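Subject: Re: docking follow-up (zinc ion)

Dear J.,

Thanks for your patience while I sorted out the input files. As discussed at Tuesday's group meeting, I've set up the holo structure prediction with zinc ion included as the bound ligand rather than trying to dock it afterwards. The sequence and the ligand SMILES I used are pasted below, so you can double-check that they match what you have on your end before we go further.
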Amino acid sequence: MNDSDTLSRFLFEHAGIRGNLLHLDASWRAVLEAHPYPEPVASRLGEALAAASLLAATIKFEGSLILQIQASGPIRTLVAQATHARTVRGLARWEGEVPVADSLSEQFGEGQLVLTIDQGRGQPYQGVIPLAGARLTDAIEHYFSDSEQIPTRLWLAAGPSRASGLLLQRLPEADATEEDWNRVTLLADTLTSKELLGLSTEPLLHRLFHEETVRLFEPEPVSFRCGCARSRIADMIKLLGESDVDNLLDEQGAVEVTCEFCNRLYRFDPVDARQLFASTTCHEPPATQQ
Ligand SMILES: [Zn+2]
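The structure tokens for the complex came back this morning:
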């Protein structure tokens, strides 16, 4: 069975624990094609993208889950976004040499991780997590245990052609015992990065949980999709203000914005750019006299 770019859900029967196993293949390579990253940056971004996809699949919502790190550096920014439609996009910014390190602080310095759930209406939900521990999973798991969320564990790995992740979560409504949870997570702790990246779904679940009763559901496809749009870029340009845009037009002849997630170029020539401001000052036509 080909499990490239899939999210597979599974359930431990009679144990009140659910799991998601994720493989990002072409979707991950599309992120890497937009920007060449040094290996330590790419690893963290791949892990973050896997984590965002796994977490997005645990909630019932329409919108996007964004895992964002802002830090003092060498890695300064990391954005991983996953939607309810199982699409992903992400990017990272860094400065100087990024070490291959066993702790987040060596790669990120001081920083925080922000989890945002944006449903496109109302205030987005945000949780802020201090960036501490050796791995990204430490920071995320700390958030789940600290904020009295549902107990959740993650295992993540990323290589040049695949980013993968495993998530286990106690079902809130089921009466999973502490013993079940400890047994299953201890088994999952024996998973190596090589296995997570190299084994396909069924052999991996068998390798870890062959003594458990696991019900595996049909895999769902995951894909890269940026979701950027000319109308949103136009809104950004409007925020610059008319005089700044006029200056840009004088200097460069056009306003060009490249989407950082997908490298798509949006070009607004003088007519397009001035139109943005014309439309904001346009008044409703006067009502016709009866
Ligand atoms: Zn884009």
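A couple of observations from a first look. The radius of gyration is 22 Å. The CA atoms of residues 150 and 172 lie 7 Å apart.

Let me know if you'd like me to rerun anything.

Best regards,
T.
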